[in-house]
Structure formats: structure tokens, C-alpha cells
Amino acid sequence: TVLELMGVKEKPETFYGHSLVDEIYGKSAAKNREPILLDLPEDTNNPDRHALILGDYKLTVFGRPAQTFALHNLEIDPGEETDLSKKQPEKLEELKALYEKTWAGLEVIEPYGGNKLRSGKTARGPMKP
User: Fold this and answer.
1) Which pLDDT does position 124 carry in this prediction?
2) Which of 11-20, 72-81, 107-116 has the lowest mean pLDDT?
């Protein structure tokens, strides 16, 4: 998405997924596309967090390995104020299984080395980009 917004015509072979530019500009609302994955590695301000969006639902996963989950319906709750995990346990389990299957095939890249993390640990990733 960022590359397309910057005018880059071809994405590198190592990139996963597809551009969301059409959705950003309202040209299509592809609710039946493959799951959208989001990754926010731990840093000084944020705990490790991932998310999977499928259709109207978003599963947020806290910690690695996964420790806690939140489930939201973005259509009716775009501000993610009401966690549906207890009200919709079947949907929660469905998205958790899809999350595990989808992330299992992806390489985990650690945050840049030397950074102090929110947990108090120090990042073990590469020292330079």
C-alpha cells in the first residue's frame, strides 16, 4: 500500500499481500479478500501486538507467543470499544485458528537491536536497516 502511494510500480518479491489503495479511496470494499495482517512489534511505547482482519471482524493478538485476544466487529464498532470475545466465542476461535495458520508461514523479524523495549528487555534484532 505504501509503495503504491509512493508511485512504486512493482513490489519486491519478498513482500506479502496486496495493496489496499483502492479501499482507501473507496473504489472497492473487498470484504471477501484474503485476511489482512497487521504487525506492531514491541518498542519503547507499545507491547508486541498483531491483528488479523477478515470481513467485518478484527482479531487483535497481544504478546508473542499469543497471550490475550480481543475481537471486534469493525462494521458496527469502528472505534473497537466493545470486545466480542465472550459474546461470540465461535467467531473468536475461527479467527484464532486462521491467525495461527496464517502467521505460521511468515518470518518473524525482531525490532532493531539495542532498543529498550516496553517490557524492559532489549531488542535482539538487526543493528542496522
Assistant:
1) 67
2) 107-116
